[in-house]
Fold:
Amino acid sequence: MYRLDPRYAPAPPAVLTTGWRAVAAELPHGPAVVAVEGPPSADWDALAGRLRRELTARGTPVALLDVRRHYAPADEVRRRTERPEDAADPHYCKLAENPLDDLFDTPPAARRPDAGLLLVYGPGAAVVPHDLLWYADVPKRYAEAAVTAGTTGANLGLPGEAPAHRRLFYVDWPMLDRHRDALARRIDGWLDVQDPAHPVHLDGDGLRGTLAALARRPVRTRPYFNSTPWGGHWAQRELGFAPDAPNTALGYELIAPEAGILIGTGPDAQAEVPFQLMCVLAPEDVLGAEVHARFGTSFPIRFDYLDTVDGGSLSLHCHPREAYMRERFGWPYTQHETYYMTLGSAETKVYLGLREDADTGQFRKEIEKAITDAVPMDPEDHVLAFPGEKGQLFMIPAGTPHASGAGNLVLEISATPYLYSLRFYDWLRPGADGKPRPMPYEHGLANLDTARRGEEVSRELVQDPRELRSGPGWREELLGALDEMFYEVRRYTLDEGAEAGDDTEGRFHVLNVAEGAGVTVHTAAGDIHGLSYAETLTVPAAVGGYRLVATAGGGPVRVVKALVRKAAER
Structure:
């Protein structure tokens, strides 16, 4: 059965504490300066007030210092963190490289009190000299929801201002992630404050010890789905996600910058910790030496779902090509994608690549007419359409126009950069706010691959499976590989009860059960992890040898696998 909350026990001697009174009891009596760091989306006033109340009740004097009151003026923060050339672009800006120190003209002074505690709190608190450091976190989905809701102060360093997704994605998150990752080895306590009334604390050594253990065994991140105007309903009906939401559109199975690992003993005693922290603390164990050397601590492959079952077609769009992504947007690698059709049929469509006779000048005119005058266009006048048949893989290198049509469940296996959909056409569909959805088509046209067309698209991007190896009751196939893409996609087919051996060979694997009841993953070290239909699992490089055993009584199973190609294979 699909798990909505895959959870892992803390590694001994980690200490998990729940509730404000118990959490406050983890703090010393002083004298000490305690810095509580974290993102703007945490409820900082409530956190500071509750800690102060509990500490005062036990007899510990507490003074408060809110670092947000010491930020530089908002205009100055914006000037420091956004380039002048980004001002004319309403859609994107180059990834910010600023340290959180840039929020301040001068960080506030903090003197250790003669008695009790000075609690320094808010984004940037760790910049202030301190004796103890906690990190109070809420997952990024909360920040995105706050910006969508128009919550003032949701953007970093801009208190009182209406928020913007553009700034959240390309300025706030890069700055906050870099800051958090730099603190990872010296955090004294991790505080999950998703539920403001019920915090969960994990000691810093326990956090690092647990992530070190998980970096050497298979691990599944917490999944969730969000809603968009094109979304379908498969995940609501089949997996039990978000029954009250308008739809389940984009399913976050493993999107490393946002993914979390649940560490705890039950739903009331669990902390959600960023998957990225595990990559920072144990990069060679997770990624492998060669992958780490190429990508640093960035986990470079993502798995997500695009649910258009009883929904609408995605926008026709492409993604930035390598040089453009690096120079214009600041990512060192780009957003190559693939679509694996978990569900589809001969009647559903995948739009992919230019027609042989495509006229890009006419394409531009029709895009602009759709935007300015709401004149509909037919994407098939310019782009090829293929049957979205179940089990087919479509290769989508950067610059290739593409979209999933309605009625499909796509397992999108792609490079990790994921916030750069350069839309050409969106079926004249308004966003959730009733306004036209953003159409960064000039970026799209600047990146459009006009060389690969017609038959070449069919031959290179819609590949036939090639058997790599086989054994009793199983086979492994290569579904798709291109020289220009750094990863490849394979598939296991196993008869009921069959067993297939594999080895990471120093490169992480990502697995997904695309058909059948599931498999059990057995590692050479003796770890066992179940994997059910539609679930995704990371097998860190350090795992080495492992076996897939198809679930007895569940019929044949298909398991999709992605991995970074070796340098010699590219």
